[in-house]
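Ligand-bound model needed. heme C.
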Amino acid sequence: MRKKERKAKFTFLSGNILDKHNKNIFTPSIIKTVNGVKVGILGLCGNKLKIDKIPGGNKFKVASPMEKAEEISARLKKEGAEYVVLLTNLNNRYCRRIAQRGMPIDLIIGSSKRSRISLPILVQDTYIVHVERGGKSVGRLDVSFLGPAGVEALPAALRYKGKTVGENIFLLNHFFPLKIAMPDHPVIGSMVKKVEAKLSRLQQVKATKSMSIVNSGRPAIKPGDSYVYAKTCAECHPQRYKRWLKTSHAKAYQSLVKQEKHFDAECIGCHTLGYEQLGGFTDIRQVGNYANVQCESCHGPGRLHVAAKGGEKMVKDLAGGKMCLTCHIDERSPEFELEPYFTKTCGSPLPVKK
Ligand code: HEC
Ligand code: HEC
Ligand code: HEC
Ligand code: HEC
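Prediction:
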């Protein structure tokens, strides 16, 4: 990291990564003058970081972020900082605990597990915002120091969207989604592609290892039930099948392949049928018939239904569309709304639950 820092055009901040003699490895904080305001910025990492597990990491330690926040923020104030910002990977709970201590920290930019907490959260006198997980958007927080005219000086549209802090600070938080259609920077893009390809090879090796554990002695769903795949359903529901083929559900696996992510356990579950589920598959390298979001991803396994020529009911209660939300979670499908999504895939509006 220090080698990287020498190449970087900015300072790496960490107030709580220390060596054996309790000396800082990185710069703990800086003061920058931004539009005439002295802004103190400190960096802290979570103390759950298992630094001793990193090769050579046992020479270092991570001090309590709480204690270091207290110490460094007080020092920044003494050095004349008018506005103090804490950058951290701590979660929302810990950020709130820091804020509750009433330290001279005006803003915490944290890293909550929940994505897109778009409105800044106020705890005591500290505002908290978070970056989005997985690099799926760029966050931008505008902090305006208002003159004597106060909020009145701002355009009305902004006043409505943002938040005023005390009398003279105004916050406006945005997330700009980095959609797949957005082109990568050519240099960064090709670097990432190389890393993804390497990662993909490693993931295949890893799949071999975890397989034997996961696969041991799984019972089937209902006795005798398991997956028969979309092609089988097509025999009796040809219209449904035709329509499904046109939806992106039928191409969901290809989307992963395109990104070299088809061996990634973090991705595979929602883009296939029955991954790590009873009657499903566990070996990422052998997806075979389980590729894509199929009929049975929504309707549940159909072997018994097919054997009884439709006489045995499919298992899942789909009315209300709650099932869609098992995959269309906020982090992955931020624009999801039951309607129109439902009509788009199912061809007709959402059935009303009786
Ligand atoms: C051998 C023919 C046949 C095959 C193959 C078949 N179905 Fe059916 N399916 C039927 C018949 C007949 C009905 C109507 C039964 C009724 O209305 O009681 C039906 C009804 C349904 C229903 C509505 C009633 C319910 O059980 O909820 C769903 C959903 C359904 N099928 C899904 C599927 C899926 C998914 C597959 C593939 C896994 C599949 N079917 C394969 C014959 C078949
Ligand atoms: C098993 C996981 C899963 C379930 C359950 C699921 N989806 Fe999806 N859905 C996906 C995935 C993955 C994609 C993206 C496919 C791709 O482009 O690679 C997707 C894409 C879509 C799209 C296309 C979005 C677009 O703009 O192109 C619609 C519409 C959609 N789903 C609606 C639904 C609805 C409605 C339900 C519930 C009835 C549902 N989905 C249930 C995984 C799922
Ligand atoms: C929790 C379920 C889930 C997981 C896990 C998941 N996805 Fe998806 N993915 C979806 C859904 C749902 C959509 C459809 C989003 C929409 O259009 O609303 C989607 C869409 C996509 C698309 C098409 C997006 C586009 O703009 O065309 C790609 C590519 C994709 N996912 C890749 C991945 C990768 C790579 C991973 C792993 C890092 C992953 N997904 C993990 C559910 C998931
Ligand atoms: C994205 C999820 C999803 C996928 C994929 C999907 N379905 Fe459905 N299907 C639904 C929902 C939701 C309904 C609405 C019925 C309900 O609410 O119970 C439905 C309705 C049906 C019905 C009529 C049920 C009735 O009660 O009249 C049949 C038959 C059916 N689907 C078969 C299939 C077949 C065959 C496939 C694959 C080719 C398929 N579906 C793919 C979600 C899905």
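Residues 211-218 have pLDDT under 50 and may be disordered.
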